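Please complete every field before forwarding. Incomplete forms are returned to the sender.

SECTION A: IDENTIFIERS
Entry label: holo-395
Bound molecule: pyridoxal-5'-phosphate
Molecule representation: SMILES string

SECTION B: INPUTS
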Amino acid sequence: MASVLEQLGVRPIINAAGPVTRLSGACMDADVIDAMGEAARVCVDIAQMQAAAGQLIAGITGAESGYVTSGAAAGLMLATAACVTEMDPGKMNRLPDTAGMKNEVIMPRSHRNFYDHAVRSVGITLVEVGISDRFSGAGVRDTEAWEIADAITDQTAAIVYVAQSFAQPPLSQVTAAARDHGVPVIVDAAGQLPPAANLKRFIREGADAVCFSGGKTIGGPQGTGILCGRSELITAVALQHLDMDVHFDLWTPPPALIHKAILPGAPQHGIGRPCKVGKEQIAGLMVALKKFVAESDETRYARWLQRMEHLADAIRDLPGCDIRIDHHRAIPVLRLALAHAEMGMDLARQLMEGDPSIHVSTSDIYDGILIFSPVCLSDDMIQPIADRLKQAMSG
Ligand SMILES: *Cc1c(COP(=O)(O)O)cnc(C)c1O
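SECTION C: PREDICTED COMPLEX
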């Protein structure tokens, strides 16, 4: 019988672009897939499963509590909602109408990006702070922590910070300023793994909630993410994410996740209900996360590097281009620089349009550089990539 992809008429691609969502994220190891299959064969109380996963996440991140979301962006939305409503079920029911609530969220202007739709969808007003003066080439400064502190008012629900190796101001300065004013800090750390130490780092630096993608380098299901942080926020997340079609008297949420006694009543379905998470996703993510932390950064790097060296060897005699492995990032990538920068777009297109379709990272395409990431490649894909490059470059 034809495989499901054959039946659908969808052909697998060779993904050298890395675990990006538009190319379906990373591949999963067999034991992650097995865990999803096992979970799919039974029914569970989903709140109990979230509570158990949350405990594992808390242990691995050093946070008080954890939760599985349908991606890092969903984590941003849920964390923002939790900061706005806190533990008030009435406010939870009214979102995204934030009238009468703390409804301003601060972001350094240089951190703005289109994943922050997730933050804005909660009905808040985004307050941008600072100007990246460095962008002009004349300035030397980005947003500073004192400017963030200066923007905090009694309407401020949260500060959102996007973690990057080059992000300014330093997170520890932002969390210190926020703490002085009693305002929570949410960190978008979607793609900040490896190093695995980053699982703990942002919490240690004072963040109240941190989200990671499950489908990038962790190797979990593509539609998953991790949220970790303060217990109260995670409870407010769970209350606005779980299915709430329950009678209060029969509702028995796990106390580790939701302490029912402190609530005046149960909220109805919340703003997070459209980004639900299935038992298969939770099961797969937990196995992937355990595997991710069990492998050292060094072993992971060596595994990826070997694949890139294999590719470098296979294309060593490509005419008219410079090939080098870039060791400056947490993931080793191969950079193929063309003699004529304007040929980059054409080459990327030829690789995409061939069979099988080959996708590369095009972040430096204007400089005529194609970037190959090892994360979603397997060894049997190296020769086809080399053959197609040779064919394209000789044409
Ligand atoms: C990938 C990414 C996201 C989105 O993560 P998902 O898990 O796909 O929701 C958000 N923010 C940043 C900075 C990212 O790189």
